[in-house]
Design a protein that fits this description.
152 residues, alpha+beta, 22% strand, extended, 2 domains, five-stranded antiparallel beta sheet, 30% helix
Length: 152
């Protein structure tokens, strides 16, 4: 049997090798799990949008109620700033879409806890990618929340 030993003279080399091994392991985990991709949702078709709504916990009709094309303002007023704060809480940010033309799909939500009607979900789509959205009550004194269904 042949055994070869290596004598390391500098402890810095060992630390560098260990750091490289840890970095490689973390990188491999990120690649294999898909982490770091962000939460980008493709919205090319109605089936894509319906699958997303179902993933968020919502029951809607088989298609959207309305689709409109809007331009996100180049400068945000207070309302848009507050709306973008909601988007940031969900991992979106409308800042980079200022001045861009986007599609807004509106769906009637049929299973909001405690509300049988007047709840809608809007999805903002730019170049077939979801960039934001909300669920809101359209009654007087209503509310607005993120896209995920609350656990009630």
């Amino acid at each position: 049997m042949f055994v070869k030993t290596i004598k390391v003279k500098k402890p810095g080399f060992v630390i560098l090798a260990l750091a490289a091994a840890i970095f490689a392991a973390v990188l491999m985990i990120l690649v294999l799990t898909g982490a770091g991709k962000g939460s980008e949702y493709t919205m090319k078709t109605e089936a894509d949008r319906q699958a997303f709504l179902k993933e968020m916990g919502w029951e809607t009709g088989k298609t959207y109620n309305e689709c409109k094309v809007v331009i996100i303002p180049s400068e945000f007023n207070d309302v848009y700033k507050k709306y973008n704060d909601l988007q940031k809480e969900q991992g979106f940010d409308l800042e980079r879409y200022k001045g861009k033309t986007v599609e807004i799909y509106t769906y009637e939500v049929k299973n909001y806890p405690g509300h049988e009607e007047n709840i809608i979900c809007t999805l903002m789509v730019y170049n077939d990618v979801l960039i934001g959205g909300d669920v809101s009550c359209i009654e007087v004194g209503g509310f607005m929340q993120g896209l995920m269904k609350p656990e009630k």
